[in-house]
Amino acid sequence: MSTSTVGGTPAVHAAGRAPQPGLPAQFRNALTAEWIKLRSVRSTLWVLLLTVAVCVGFSVLQAIANTQRWDSMGPQERAHFHAASNSVAGVFFGQLIIGCLGVLAMSAEYTTGTIRATITATPQRVLAFLAKIGVFTVVAGIVAVFTTLTSFFVAQAIFSSKHADVGLTDGENLRVVLGAAVFLVGVALIGLGFAAVLRHTAGAVSSLFGILLVLPILMNFLPEDWANAIMKWLPLQLGLVMIRTGESNSNAFAPWTGMALLYGYAALALAAGAVLLVRRDA
Amino acid sequence: MIHIRGLTKRYGGTLAVDDLSFDVPPGVVTGFLGPNGAGKSTTMRAIVGLDRPTSGSVTVNGHRYQDLRAPLREVGSLLEARSVHPGRSAYNHLLFLARSNGLPKRRVEEVLELVGLRAVARKRAGGFSLGMGQRLGIAAALLGDPSTMIFDEPVNGLDPEGIIWVRNLMRSLAAEGRAVLVSSHLMAEMALTADRLVVIGKGRLIADTTVREVTEGAGGGRVLVRGADQLRLRSALEAAGGSVTDGAEGALLVEGLVAPRIGEVAHLADVVLHELTPQVASLEEAFMELTAGAVEFRAGAGRPASGAPGATTATGATAPTGATAPVRAVAGTGATSGTER
Which residues contact B201 (CB under 8 A, 6 or more apart)? Predict the structure, then answer.
């Protein structure tokens, strides 16, 4: 191979001497780079497909169970049956998987060493991190909305055999279905923030599962008034409030207040990650 | 062009780089030499902003690396540590780097061609050999057609053909007017690649010099001579002002006369010459001589037992012209430092 062409074509030479891009152009470049990174690893697609499959799958199982029980349900029980809430119940399993994707999006940078390539190319580390968060949020958001909408419609198709199905725009249903998607993305962002702080896949995944699954179990071991005071702050509870309809619980945040809180947690984790990203040697 | 001034990097209690200052000028290959753990990688990581200096400054083309908005167009770097996702193809790895600096897709194809990875560009980088990984790293460094390039141990894991390729690449990059910094712990490699030499040990600057100065200095300006009539030759050389000692296998070692003058003296004395070899030490020997004075460095890294054989082997490989005497001198130094400990 020849080494005399290292300089490349004259056009590239010209690009090399071009003025440095401004901040907006640089952010656009960083967004493109993050999108290429996210789509060029097979695990992204697999984990996203798994998220859809698990969410929709569990919703279908739930819907089948509901319809089988339908005939033995009394009028009172049928009146309290929430066809929308039940149809998106799968997100409580799906949150674990999309949470892992959030972790991987960041931890893989560290476990594979890609972080060195990333911040050598974009030394403005916070900008690179924001680009990653932005691209990830959009991708996770699209998949999450697709997931909850699919769950909803598939479940309604099953409920329709008992004429128990509801429409997407009826009552609070749209809030439930979209809210469930927003919840999924919030959990994934917490995962991404944990990964930025901990820099290890296993550590970030166990921490995430700890607050999603272990903390709610822990509540059973606390005095009841303590548990009641703490419970409503937990991510799981914020998600439950989001997909519930009908009766309001005095010991819970309003759905969107709860979601704001969940995103506040995510913002805290991401901010901590950003501070450490800037402070630590890579 | 890289300016390093008073660079100091401390990791916890360890001082990795200690008040280091040197420049990497354009148009030449600057060899960055030092034993493992001397602080070469840390210095290079500081140049590209991966490590934040404890004190001191590093600038590239007059800017701090962190202030560059499209740094790949200014500085290309191949660092020692792996930085590629094994599940990502070589093409996509280069593509995300190119795009992050606003470089065209076409440039990715060009550098892949240049490093000879075109055929495997769409394969996952996890399946690459060490040598292919190095080529991918070099491709990434070339992406932005930068005026400054740094390579940390670029020949690691390459086969002989690859080593020659890298060597020629470094030289042609410098010939194009770029500033090239290449680190190695192999002195022989540096002798073949570099023009300038920056030698560090224990994070400190030991020498900022040229390959020529180092090798000539270490050779002591001696010339090895063999003639048909050694006795007549010896007296003629001594009469001409040379100081003559016995070399190996009946040869004469002449000091104080340059080779052309020795040839003239032999001609006038009517002695047929069989050999006339200026003594140029291999860079290994020169390096050992250079660092022999750096007591702290030798105390940490010098193992007298292994120092001398290492030098001898390297001598055989790089300077076959009977550099026996310098090797003995170096072996002696090693032994001395061993005794001191």
Answer: B34, B35, B38, B291, B294, B296, B297, B301
